[in-house]
Amino acid sequence: MEKILIVDDEAFICENLQRILGEEHYDTAVAQTGDAALRWLRENQVDLVFLDLNLPDRNGLDILKDIKGLDPDLLVIVITGYASVESAVEALKMGAYDYIKKPFKADVIKLIVRLALETQSLKREVRSLKKQHEGWLADGAVIAESRAFQEILQQVREVARHSDTTVLITGETGTGKDLIARTIHTLSPRSTRPFLEINCAALPESLLESELFGHESGAFTGAKVRKLGLFEAANRGTILLDELGEMHLGIQAKLLRVLEDKKLRRVGGTQTLEVDVRIIAATNVDLREAIKARRFREDLYYRLHAFPIHLPPLRERPEDVIALAKTFLSEYCRKYGRGFGGISPEAQRRLAAYPWPGNVRELRHIVERICILHEGERILESHLPRELSDPCESEVKDLLPPDFAIPPEGIDLDQVVDRFTHDLIERVLGMVDGNISQAAKLLRIPRGTLRYKLEKHHVESASD
Ligand SMILES: Nc1ncnc2c1ncn2[C@@H]1O[C@H](COP(=O)(O)OP(=O)(O)OP(=O)(O)O)[C@@H](O)[C@H]1O
Ligand SMILES: [Mg+2]
């Protein structure tokens, strides 16, 4: 039941208001002076205050100020006498919700109170949503220990506020493109509206088209009833177009039109509909390559490129690996009733050294598997899957031919190792047609390190 405080020194007014409000089943309390009201408010939760501006002890406007100081969101309706419209206006300027003049009518009071309480509950809802959003990042929904990812979160916060800006998220599989898209939506003013996603690679062209734009009944065989498209369903919300790089050229043209005009037509329809959605596109293919290969429209690329966010692969941010592993560990310990309290230093070293071709998703799965299969106080090296627990030995142990003879005068270790490094890099580059990113992945070193080694060992590379 909503609680209303009446602050007035005239017993008649108080009784009258109490009676009217009682008819609507509101719970009421009465204070006859400003100080008594403030004392009461400090100790009690209240939804609404009626405040007479003519009180015996203090100026009503001062009391209003103090009430607002206690709770800026508390709604106050001021009660004024006949000749004091000016002070009512003053009170409104100071944040009063409304005013009523004496004598008042019961119906008016009831209506004002109902509207005021509706406003109050909306305000509270907004406040709790806001808190939820602020909490989203604070709660660690997105782990970002590395500088690279912290900078990304900064960009996310920034673009979230600009709720019409199109965002293009790129990154290898499992780097967190979905998560970042959802975070942008959650932190944006659109967050109370839908967040809908569609995988552009999963559907044949005609189906994707009607999923996105909707269709009228009879638009094609099988279209028995009118169907709303994703753009309409997500109105005033956000759409994530996942695996955009795989979208058919025909649909790309239509999407471009929607982006340019903010209007669309359902398939088989004549009516033009306005749409208001933010588009976030995600892809793990290089769109510039796709443009070169004529699989992606350059004009659409530039439209979507308004705010690009690139998520670096996990192997380039080892600081995140351990933080993510610990987060997933407590999540799966809860889920599977395990008591792992941490990760041993050796296991941490292995985790940080592994190249994570499947990125964060792979890490999540590995931690989950450990929690299913093992129990203990800490995650040990022996709990890790083979590819992590002894990555090198198994692959490298036979590289030195058994008949490799050391000449009597000895060998120059540095020179031999350099030679070996040169040959190995050349071999790997040959395997991947000179693609440095892929070669770096196979050699489990960052691209920058590979480039440095290429220079140092004078290896020719074809492309980046
Ligand atoms: N920074 C992060 N903090 C917490 N969890 C993360 C982070 N990055 C990724 N994840 C988790 O990793 C998993 C994979 O992330 P997500 O699905 O967003 O990747 P993706 O880039 O969309 O992958 P794909 O290209 O395969 O669609 C999810 O469970 C996600 O919650
Ligand atoms: Mg994804």
Description:
49% of the residues lie in helices and 14% in strands. The chain has 464 residues and is α/β, with parallel strands linked by helices. It folds into four domains: 3-127, Rossmann fold (3-Layer(aba) Sandwich); 140-312, Rossmann fold (3-Layer(aba) Sandwich), CATH 3.40.50; 315-395, Orthogonal Bundle (Helicase, Ruva Protein, domain 3); 404-456, Arc Repressor Mutant, subunit A (Orthogonal Bundle). Strands 2-1-3-4-5 form a five-stranded parallel β-sheet, with helices on both faces. The protein has a five-stranded parallel β-sheet with strand order 7-10-13-6-14. Strand 3, helix 3 (60-70) and strand 4 form a beta-alpha-beta unit. It starts with a strand and ends in an 8-residue tail after the last helix. The model has no long low-confidence stretch (mean pLDDT 88). The chain binds adenosine-5'-triphosphate (ATP) and magnesium ion (MG). The site of adenosine-5'-triphosphate has 16 residues, from helix 7 and helix 15.
